[in-house]
Amino acid sequence: MSGPASDLAWLVLAVVAAGLLLGGCGVEPRVGSPHWNRDACEHCRMALSTPRYAAQLVGPGARVSFFDDLGCAVAAQAQRGDLAEAEPYVLRPGSREDWVRARELRYSDGHRTPMDYGIAASPEGTLSFAEAEALLLERTRSGRRAR
Length: 147
Description:
The protein has helices at about 5-25, 70-80, 130-140, and strands at about 55-60, 65, 85-90, 100, 105-110, 120. The chain is α+β, with helices and mostly antiparallel strands.
């Protein structure tokens, strides 16, 4: 087959292939930079003042929500449908700027976090994110906090 029909078939094939290739490329979500001591936690409305315990949810459409405590982020994600698909991020321990996917770090319990959930990212943490998330959800449901 040659001529205009063949050219059109190749063009359609090229467009479909490009769409499949580009559609499969994941775009890294863009984390935000809060204004410390000015921005409020989207869950409890307390000012973001302690970077060590802060979290953010980066959702579809590049929407960024900030939280003063990882427990607030987990609670908000469980309670609000608009955050269900968002990816949680926390600051790498010891950093004020290096946001990393929360699922990549380890966590420990017993911290004095802003909203008393008590769990924070920690280099010597023994909890996976899934284990920390389960504890935070239980504390949200029961109303019992770490202190």
